[in-house]
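Sanity check

After download, print the first record. It should look like this:
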Amino acid sequence: MDTDSRTPPLGRWMGLALEEAALAPETGDVPVGAVVLDESGVVLGRGRNEREARQDPTGHAELVALRRAAAAVGSSRLDGSTLVVTLEPCAMCAGAIVLARVARVVLGAWDPKAGATGSTRDIVRDSRLNHRVEVVGGVREAEAAALLTSFFAARR
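Expected structure tokens:
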């Protein structure tokens, strides 16, 4: 998996996000998980979808993890951080990622319907904004997609 010591352990980091995602269905939430790491790979914040659990339309995994990371560092700016998320962020989350000054987004499954980091739009790399984010996609994509597929299949 991530054997080159010069590259970050993307698969291991995605494993942390997948662990969070697996907990979301317990509250009826879509299985999406996220983790924010500092430049050294230290976890600053974790999150999973909590829209149903909290009846909060902004309860997306990315926002939960970003809020926790910001609280941990005592700043709304997460310069140099990496957000690892199991599903491509939506427009709301992409905007928050830019505002938080996240350096990199690592995502599992792409979202061809609502993704805003390369699929339907690319907010995080929009040249009109004052901050752009590196995007690494498809990390452990099959696992992330399988969680979503099985969640929705059980509801049909």
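If your output differs, re-run the checksum step. Summary of this record's structure: The CA atoms of residues 72 and 132 lie 23 Å apart.
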